[in-house]
Design a protein that fits this description.
single chain, about 350 residues, alpha/beta, Aspartate Aminotransferase, domain 2, seven-stranded mixed sheet, two-stranded parallel sheet, globular, binds pyridoxal-5'-phosphate
Length: about 350
């Protein structure tokens, strides 16, 4: 099966094989693996040792987003969330549930945030301390570019955290070059092509404060303090040890491929093949070419389109795509990330063409 979903993504056999054993998290053979992962990520994220640290959290990406909001923003404090897709709405929802104020800034889900947008947001909401931005909006496929938003945030003396869960690993970002960024968030799956199960926050340590989170489970300051007390190879609570072991192997594969530039090149090639193939079949893309990121392609459903029937027919041909959409109007969402080669994407496009031809003939 070729998995073309924007998470969980397709993984390589050697990554899954790295998870095929029992592991004790406190074992002296495992602790160096966990500590090493943190160092490797810090380097990939352009973190400065002593100034930044990798603070992992078990569970889904949203657990990490909630932990970050709680750990960075005082209870009752305010943030701005530019809302141009469903993942931004989720930041707003979990922030509000955590007792922080959210100023949602509605934008069309067909374009990224501009510098003017960021200036207007903070002018309208001077009480906000942080911009909470989704980098790759997995809802539609647009990119909110931190290189555009970051300098404005910095100029205003404000702070920023980035939900880069479907972006980091493929799209470049350096913490050292973004002193306004307090946290960069991503997971073990998505663009790193590991198994799901761990979230990683690359945090600016000076932004953390004890007790602010109002939660022990979701306190990144406590994750940091635990490392200082028990070592960087130690983890609070029971971790998904197999996913962590697999992530170390996923980082080996990431390095062997050529790191972030190589991954971006492969995903971009996948996107080009898919997008040209889909247009040739008569599908209309949801986004203008200029707004299209390399992570997920969203297509308008033709009138009378049977999404589940299409997904089932494609699955019978060995290609699995999402059977739901998160845009305001009906769409088809197809991921270009994961351990998928351009050859496999050509094959997936051929299978889509076959399904459409079979249905047209029926
Ligand atoms: C996948 C994703 C998440 C995390 O999703 P979970 O299901 O909680 O792991 C968060 N933000 C974005 C933009 C994503 O694509």
């Amino acid at each position: 099966m070729i998995l073309l979903t924007p998470g969980p993504v397709q993984t390589r056999p050697e990554i899954r094989a790295a998870a095929a054993r029992d592991i004790a998290p406190w074992d002296n053979d495992f602790r160096p693996v966990y500590a090493r992962i943190r160092e490797r990520i810090l380097a990939i994220a352009g973190g400065v040792p002593g100034e930044h640290a990798v603070l992992p959290l078990q569970g889904a990406g949203h657990f990490l987003v909630e932990a970050t909001v709680r750990s960075l923003v005082d209870a009752g404090g305010a943030i701005i969330v530019p809302v141009n897709g469903v993942y931004a709405q989720r930041i707003a929802k979990l922030t509000r549930a955590a007792g922080r104020v959210v100023h949602e800034w509605a934008l069309p889900d067909t374009r990224g945030v501009t510098a003017e947008d960021v200036r207007a947001m903070f002018a309208a909401h001077p009480d906000a301390t942080h911009l909470g931005m989704v980098v790759s909006e997995t809802g539609s496929g647009i990119i909110n570019d931190p290189e555009v938003a970051g300098p404005v945030v910095r100029g205003l003396g404000k702070r920023m955290f980035l939900d880069a869960v479907s972006a980091f690993g493929a799209l470049p970002f350096s913490m050292a070059e973004h002193p306004e960024c307090d946290a960069l968030l991503f997971t073990s799956n998505k663009c790193f092509e590991g198994l799901p199960g761990m979230g990683f926050c690359v945090a600016r340590l000076a932004a953390l404060a004890p007790g602010r989170a109002g939660s022990w489970s979701f306190d990144l300051h406590d994750v940091w303090q635990h490392a200082l007390t028990h070592g960087w190879g130690s983890i609070r609570f029971t971790p998904p040890v197999q996913a962590i072991a697999a992530f170390d192997a996923a980082l080996d594969a990431f390095d062997a491929e050529g790191g972030q530039p190589a991954r971006l090149a492969r995903y971009s090639a996948n996107m080009r093949i898919l997008s040209e193939g889909a247009r040739a079949m008569g599908f209309a893309p949801y986004l203008d070419q200029a707004q299209q990121g390399p992570i997920i392609l969203t297509l308008h459903q033709p009138p009378g389109f049977d999404l589940q029937g299409f997904v089932d027919a494609l699955k019978a041909r060995g290609v699995l795509i999402s059977n739901f959409y998160t845009t305001p109007t009906p769409t088809i969402r197809i991921g270009c990330i994961g351990a998928v080669t351009p050859d496999e994407m050509h094959h997936a496009v051929a299978m889509m063409r076959d399904v459409m031809a079979t249905r047209a003939a029926a």
